[in-house]
């Protein structure tokens, strides 16, 4: 019996066939892309994470604003590069969130359900940006709940002059999906705005 067991040889395992060159080339192309196909510089966080929309001449000539929409539905609102405030000498010197009946900077939103969020219309005043002796009213542009204002702008209004599309954003809104669908067709795409104003 032992002799029979010894005489039975272990079955030969088939060796895996060598990989085909086509598979290796395909894998290599995924891991190491062709340098000629890469963009000159990587996309910014705004370009990679947001759909960018613009509003030209919102309620007043030259009052251009942007609305950057994240896939989670939140909208970041700010001043577009061609806003009339940027054309004044000296740049923006102050930001005032006290607009009439309410001071937007005193709003504190809490909890998962965003209690105390102010529900605003698209033409509601959000803040005033001051340039020398002039002030320009910044509007909400979207109908929704105001979740956050950029409090850094109160002490550092120069952020609007240096990086309006990033650290110099004005506010973050949460519009309802139905409200967003109603208004988004009024906005310009990044390319359309660039062609209209020649800047971005």
Q: Your description of this structure?
A:
By secondary structure, the chain is of the alpha+beta class. Helices cover 24% and strands 25% of the residues. The protein is built from 7 helices and 12 strands. It has helices at 2-7, 21-31, 45-49, 152-155, 158-163, 177-183, 190-197, and strands at 51-55, 65-69, 75-79, 94-96, 98-99, 102-103, 118-120, 125-131, 134-139, 144-149, 171-174, 188-189. The strands form 3 sheets. A 7-stranded antiparallel beta sheet has the order 7-10-11-3-2-1-12. The protein is globular. It starts with a helix and ends with a helix.
Short key terms for the protein model shown above:
globular; alpha+beta; 12 strands; 7-stranded antiparallel β-sheet; 200 residues; single chain; 3-stranded antiparallel β-sheet
Give the SSE map.
Blueprint: H1 2-7, H2 21-31, H3 45-49, E1 51-55, E2 65-69, E3 75-79, E4 94-96, E5 98-99, E6 102-103, E7 118-120, E8 125-131, E9 134-139, E10 144-149, H4 152-155, H5 158-163, E11 171-174, H6 177-183, E12 188-189, H7 190-197
Antiparallel strand pairs: 1-2, 1-12, 2-3, 3-11, 4-8, 5-6, 7-10, 8-9, 10-11
Write down the Rg. Answer: 28 Å
SS summary, helix count: 7
- The proportion of strand residues reads 25-35%
What class would the helix/strand composition place it in?
A: alpha+beta
Identify low-pLDDT runs.
none
Q: What percentage of residues falls in helices of 4 or more residues?
A: 10-25%
Sheet having the most strands: 7 strands, antiparallel
| Broad shape | globular
The arrangement of helices and strands along the chain is HHHEEEEEEEEEEHHEHEH
């Amino acid at each position: 019996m032992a002799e029979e067991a010894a005489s039975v040889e272990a079955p030969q395992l088939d060796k895996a066939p060598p990989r085909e060159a086509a598979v290796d080339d395909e894998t290599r192309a995924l891991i190491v892309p062709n340098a000629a196909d890469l963009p000159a510089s990587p996309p910014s966080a705004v370009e990679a994470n947001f759909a960018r929309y613009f509003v030209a001449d919102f309620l007043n000539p030259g009052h251009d604003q942007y609305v950057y929409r994240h896939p989670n539905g939140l909208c970041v609102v700010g001043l577009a590069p061609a806003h009339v405030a940027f054309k004044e000498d000296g740049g923006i010197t102050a930001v005032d969130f006290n607009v009439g009946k309410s001071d937007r900077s005193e709003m504190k939103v809490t909890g998962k359900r965003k209690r105390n969020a102010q529900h605003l219309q698209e033409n509601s005043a959000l803040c005033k940006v001051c340039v020398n002796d002039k002030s320009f009213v910044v509007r909400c542009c979207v109908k929704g709940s105001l979740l956050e204002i950029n409090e850094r702008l109160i002490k550092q209004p120069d952020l609007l002059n240096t990086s309006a599309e990033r650290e110099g954003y004005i506010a973050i809104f949460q519009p309802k999906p139905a409200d967003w669908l109603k208004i988004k067709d009024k906005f310009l795409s990044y390319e359309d705005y660039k062609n209209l104003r020649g800047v971005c």
